[in-house]
Amino acid sequence: MEFILSVMLLLFQSITGIDLASGGGNALPVKPPAVQQPAGTAPAAPGGEKTPAEGTAAVKKDPQPDAPKVKGIYVTAHSAGGSRMESLLKLLDDTALNSMVIDVKDDYGYITYPTENAEMLKLGEPKKYIKDVNALMERLKKHEVYPIARIVVFKDTVLARKHPELSFTRKDGSVWQNGKKDSFVNPYRKEVWDYNIAVAKEAAKLGFKEIQFDYVRFPEGFEKKADSLVFNKTEESRVDAVSGFVKYAKEQLEPLGVRVSVDIFGYAASVPAAEGIGQDFVKISKHVDVISPMVYPSHYSTGWFDVKDPDKDPYATIKGSMIDTHKKLDPIGSYKPVVRPWIQDFTAKWLGKGHYIPYGKAEVDAQIKALRDTKIEEYLLWNAGNKYTTGVNF
C-alpha cells in the first residue's frame, strides 16, 4: 500500500465505521514506526513500574499445565448453536486443529446463551443463539476440543444503551457511538469490570478451560474525542485502567483454574504503548497466561517489516511481527505468557486491486511456517464467517 492507500483506508474507517480492530474486529492498518526498539532492550513500564529482568521475576504458574499446544479456530455463537457446528467439528476431527474460541459475550454485548445468573442479569442481556450451552460443552468434550470462551469486554452497545452512565455520552446526554453504531463502556467503571468477570466465572463453571478477553481497550482514536465526552474517570491513566482490569480479572479467576488470555493489536509489539486506547503490550502480558496479538498481514500498511504490500507477503509479515513480539516480551522473563497469535484465513478485498491476494492453503501455510520459524507453537485462525481453508499443514 502506498501512502494514498493508507489514507483511503482511514477514510473507509471513518465513512463506514467498520472497526478493523480486534480479534474479532480485526485491526486498523497503521504506519510503521520510524524507530523501533533495539533488540534486547527492556521496554519501560508505565507508572514507574520496574520491568523484571530475565530470571528475576516470580515464575508464572500455568493453571492449565496439561493443556495441549492450542491450534484453534474462531466460532461465532450462531455457528456454535447451529448446523455449521457439524462441519467445524469435523474439521477438528480430521486435522491437527484442537481448539475453538466461542463467543460467550459477543461484539454487540449479548450473552449468547440463556442464563439465570442474577449477577450477570443485572447488566447483561442473554440471547438464545446457543440454546443449550451444557449440551454444547458435552459435544465439545466428546470431540476432545479444548474450549475457549471469548468475552468482548469494553465494546458493549447493549450495556451502553441500557446504562448510559457506564458509557461515554455527548454533551446532550446521548450515548457516543462510532460510525458502525457501536458503543463502548467505560474501563474506569468497576461495575463494568465485575459484570464481565461474572460472565467469565460462569463460563469457567460451564467447563471452558480458558477465558479470552477481547476489546480490552478504549475506542480507537479516543484521545481525540475524550475532551468532548462525558464520563467518569480517576487519576489513573487509560493504560493503568485497562491493565488494572486485566490484573483484577486474573486474580478473580485464579481460584477457578482457568487460563486468562487477552487479544491485542498485532502492531502493539512494534510500537510504544498505545496510550490513546489504553493498551500496553507488556503491562497486559504480565498479567495473563496467554497473549494473542492479532497479526493479520492485511492489517499492516506499506513499509512494515520492509514489505511494500504486507498482505501479499504473509510469511515476511508474520515473521517480522513475531520477532518484534519476542523482543518486547523477552525482557520480562518469567512473566512472559504463552504467545498465541491470531492469523489470517480470509481475503482482504477492501485493500484494493494490486494490494491484496486471495488467501487459501498457501497463504495460511506461509503464516504457520513463519510462526514455527520464530519458535511460536500455538495459533488461532480468524474468519468472521467461520469458513476455514482445508488441506492446510497444521
Automatic annotation (TrEMBL):
It comes from the Bacteria. Residues 72-388 form the DUF4015 domain. Gene3D superfamilies: Glycosidases. Residues 33-55 have a biased composition (Low complexity). InterPro entries: DUF4015, GH. Keywords: Hydrolase. Pfam families: DUF4015. One of its GO terms (molecular function) is hydrolase activity. SUPFAM superfamilies: (Trans)glycosidases (SSF51445). Residues 31-65 are annotated as: Disordered. This is Glycoside hydrolase. It comes from Paenibacillus oenotherae.
